[in-house]
Amino acid sequence: MTREGVRIVDSADVADSAQIGPGSSIWHLAQVREDAVLGESCIVGRGAYVGTGVRMGNSCKLQNYALVYEPAVLEDGVFVGPAVVFTNDHYPRSISPDGTLKRGDDWEAVGVTCRQGASIGARSVCVAPVTIGRWALVAAGSVVVKDVPDFALVAGVPAKRLRWVGKAGVPLEPSGDHEFTCPQTGERYVQDGETLTEAPIETE
Asked: What pLDDT, in 10s, does the model give residues 67-81?
């Protein structure tokens, strides 16, 4: 399939109604469903799945076999690792109590939201509805069942916050009373309870 400024390999399955931004690549055996919206310079890896109406910002990466079910929303710069799963059903069942097969229109889909710069490690499961905060980092193999604050490093089953990370993804180091510094970039952050924010830029 050819779309201007977009690479879609022959074995990928991309719906005609999906919107793919320039500079994006859809790799082998990936599927992008109807009305999905991908921004510029996104990468959808081998075997990855993007559900109907999923919305992705610019420069997002879905690694091999990631499953992003609708109605997930990914803001700019989100990384989704290999074999990650975003669920979309509170109470999944194949059949109703009377034994009849459930249909696609008799349940309410709920989605996972990933804010700018968030990263989800390999084989993690995010149980909708949860929000992964800005620049947060979910460690590989985690099960996320509640919202993750901005800049939080969470891990485990269920996932819990272990440390804070900066925009570079490196754990922050304490640098004062409720203050943290990124050892890689020197950026400063301030903690208030379970919230971390960027420190105001000092001016002379």
From this structure: 999 999 999 999 999
CA distance 94 to 20: 32
Token pair 């510094």 is found at 181
pTM summary value: 0.93
The predicted-structure confidence for 123-135, as pLDDT tens digits, reads as follows: 999 999 999 999 9
Quick check: bond before 158 cis, omega within 30? yes
Predicted confidence band of residue 11 (pLDDT cuts 50, 70, 90)? very high
Locus of tokens 């700018």: 116
**CB-based contact 121:137 (threshold 8 Å):** yes
Q: Who contacts 52 (Cβ-Cβ below 8 Å, separation ≥6)?
A: 33, 34, 35, 36, 70
Q: Say how far apart CA 190 and CA 162 lie, in whole Å.
A: 16
Among 86-100, 137-151, 171-185, top mean pLDDT goes to: 137-151
Rounded CA separation 84/38 (Å):
18
Are the CB atoms for 126 and 84 separated by under 8 Å?
A: yes
- The Cα-based distances of 80 to 9, 48, 53 in angstroms read 20, 10, 18
Do residues 166 and 184 lie in contact, with contact meaning Cβ atoms separated by under 8 Å?
yes
CA distance 102 to 95: 5
Dihedral class, residue 90 (left if φ above 0, else alpha if ψ from -120 to 50, else beta): alpha
